[in-house]
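Question (not urgent): is this output format expected?
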Amino acid sequence: MGNRLTQIATRTGDDGTTGLGNNTRVPKNHARMQAMGDVDELNSHIGLLLCEDMPDAVRQLLVDIQHQLFNLGGELSIPGFELLKDDGLLQLDQALATHNATLPRLQEFILPAGTRAAAQAHVCRTVARRAERAVVALGQQEALRPAPRQYLNRLSDLMFVLARVLNRHGRSGAAADDVYWKSERLQQSQAD
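Got this back:
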């Protein structure tokens, strides 16, 4: 892996380029930089989500995810390097199965709303989807392993599920529910 930063303000990026972990430089608008930036933004949004009240198991899962996202960013920063491991994807699959099993069946599409924690989880979900699109775009230009794309895809699904879990956790432990889209179909089924 490349050198660790000892100084943040290096001014080497003033020319519109940035250094990768393999000591090459690319334009700051390069597809690799877009993917890295979106993964970094996702990690930051998860950090914000961690400021909210939530079950301890969800908190620990999100902390683990932050470390995996750092690994993913490290892998993206060094072309050809592998840092994201298969156990990270397995953890997401297991969490999806565990948390989905506790939730009622969806009646309709839900809005990204409810408790503040649930709404922030939805923000994480949408940023994960954008990061996934950026990784797909990079993969169309350069050879990439499927693991980063798969991890982000699964993570966005998990953030949707966790938003539902967090709505049920509610404010100070008070239960809440999903906020359903008021579709004609749902209104009709409730009228019947």
